[in-house]
Amino acid sequence: MRRETDGAPDGARGAAPPPRQNSTVAAGGLRRALRTIIRRLIGAPDYEVYIEHCRAAGHPPRLSEREYVREFFENKGKAPRCC
Fold it and tell me: With a cut of 70, which residues of the chain have pLDDT below it?
């Protein structure tokens, strides 16, 4: 007697495994995440996060990276600001 489980043809077992994620892309994302975490831990400015914030808020960044870092250290410990 033959047993049918999922209607697959003889010799086929279930669905194909999902495609593997490109390890280069995954490693790049991991490095970026680690860099962001380390910068937050030591209190360093993170321009990439600022750029992502501007994109999410729907406006262009008003500061270059150099201006962002300078303003970051000038305002460190002062009242919070947006953009």
Answer: 1-27, 79-83
Report the distance separating Cα 2 and Cα 31, nearest Å: 51
Contact between residue 8 and residue 16 where contact means Cβ atoms under 8 Å apart = no
- How many residues in the chain? 83
Residue that the structure tokens 């990276």 belong to: 65
How far, in Å, CA of 5 to CA of 7, rounded? 6
The residues, any chain, with a CB within 8 Å of residue 46's CB and separated by 6 or more, are 35, 36, 39, 40
| Cα 34 off chain centre by | 10
How much is the pTM? 0.50
Task: Enumerate the domain spans of the chain.
Answer: 46-83
